[in-house]
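Researcher: I'd like a structural prediction for the single chain below. Treat it as a standalone chain; there are no partners to consider.
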Amino acid sequence: MGSLSLTKFQIPLVSSFVLLSIVATILNPVTAAKQCDFPAIFSFGASNADTGGLAASFYPYSPKKPYGETYFNRSTGRYSDGRIILDFIAQSFGIPFLSAYLDSLGTNFSHGANFAVGGSTIKTAGGSSPFSLGIQYSHFERLKNTSQFISSKGGVFATLMPKQEYFSEALYTFDMGQNDLTAGFMSNKTLQQVNASIPDIVQSFTSTIKNISNFGAKSFWIHNIGPLGCLSSILTNFRSAERDNNGCAKAYNEVVQFFNQNLKEALAKLRKDIPLAAITYVDIYSAKYSLSATQRNMDLSFHM
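Model: Treating it as a single chain, here is the predicted structure.
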């Protein structure tokens, strides 16, 4: 594998304020534990959901301060100054923060695992990370197929593996797709070409979700993509792009909206294909764009 450049990953610092605002919008931690009783979480995604996968795989590129400084007081492999949305979800269910599947040091999978790795894409081609959704799925499949054999050894082995029934009782979370679009933008494709690739990307996404449901998974929490046109990386690289009233690159956000609409429609179809599953479409785009729209009236500066 060739050398990696951290700039390829397009990984922003996510402030705790932003995440707290988003979580308050999409999840009520007071009532969640009463309404849901998930014993485990299995997470798939990229930097927004990474709890140490990229850091374990490419240690020289592991996040340094200010990552981790406001909650953990140290870098933990998260691309945030504190906790990420996944952490707040876990806390609301009363389960520990998820260990990254790729991290072999001090990991505990008794309440799930995090397969997310910063820089990952849904499709294999064009990604800056080797850990595409297909690879993450294979990691999940391996954990599912080997965990009970490991647990049967007893002792500490049993305490570090999820129970068999947890695979059907767990919440499955997905936060992915941003890097697929960003890879298209940064490879000099036209916006029309990026748009044309979206149906195939979404089809791969929902096919993987359906494959996971074949293992007995019933509860899915799926984020759409946030407003990439508001990111500094897009605004810096495409300075001539028309800006909206909030200073975001309008055309790039329209591509994201097209992806999100395709995803929403595909998930509606998926609900019919697997009627016993509970599929929640989480509108991260609206939550983040709302923050972007209001920040000018607040004495705050933050990144998404």
